[in-house]
Amino acid sequence: MEEIVERLVLAQEARREELLLLLGDLSPEEAEHLRVAADRVRKSCVGDKVYLRGLIEFSNICVQDCLYCGIRRSNQEADRYRLDLEDILSCVDEGKRLGYRTYVLQGGEDPYYTDERIVEMVRAIKERDPECAVTLSVGEKERESYERYYQAGADRYLLRHETHSRELYEQLHPGMSYENRLRCLQDLKEIGFQVGAGFMVGLPGQTVADHVEDLLFLKELQPHMVGIGPFMPQQDTPLKDAPAGTAEMTCRLLSILRLLLPKVLLPATTALGSIDPKGREQGLQAGANVVMPNLSPTRVRDKYLLYDGKICTGDEAAHCRACIERRINSAGYVVDMGRGDGDIL
Hints:
Elements: H1 2-11, H2 16-22, H3 28-46, E1 49-52, E2 54-59, H4 85-98, E3 102-107, H5 115-128, E4 133-137, H6 143-152, E5 156-158, H7 166-172, H8 178-191, E6 194-201, H9 208-221, E7 225-230, H10 247-260, H11 270-275, H12 279-285, E8 290-291, H13 298-301, H14 317-330, E9 334-336
Parallel strand pairs: 1-8, 1-9, 2-3, 3-4, 4-5, 5-6, 6-7
Helix pairs in contact: 1-3, 3-10, 4-5, 5-6, 6-8
């Protein structure tokens, strides 16, 4: 197994059968060898810095009906909200005061936020803080829409592919097309965005072989960012009784991703911190180098519940920022408040 890891370190690629072995039953010593190799590559390629992104969850209204998601269209129990532009700019002002240089605007696919409103939002943030980076995560759009956001000043776009299994993707996303998801990612890259993709770990019906295909797809796509996190059930969805993914498998996949894409921006996600009290620290030690503390107003934090057990819903932005920095330092890394732009090989 060590030979496979070292070849992956040197070549940044692996065959399907090798990836299957790395995701199989490893001894504790083999798993630790993989983690240490990923941490070594991370430090040599991107240093020991961890970039902080200020997350603003501006709407939990969504036209999609994804089976795993707490803000799915059919969830009648969700307490819906939208932030207006003034609310969003207040979050940016607080973020700027706390030193953030990137704002991640995330929301459901909410038809209220037309292209015109999203363009207005991006321009207003750039006027407020001209040197910042703006990341959008608002789902599937037509290419023309993405072009308008880019021209308005948006720098990055996050759109997780969720799973590279077409069958599983379309089973979990009623009325959605996996081909369209891929089209969106390709459009975003061609337009010039720094692009983020990613997948969930431990979805019902998902196999280790599916994760191998996720890894190979990401190696081919060469995104600037990859967001992965464990599947966590939400009580008001059809998958409420499904078992959750695990921090262990998520961290193993983070390590493999760091070796496949040495310079990628790799978050230790909130979901990872929610499934294990030390999950984010474990993610950083497995190769991750981004954390996204929440800048959303506390009055809406507990309404953006994609899954149950989400952490930090009651924390003020300043407390969240300070807590995250302590955790990063305790894991052996240092905070970098710069933009941290993506750089792929």
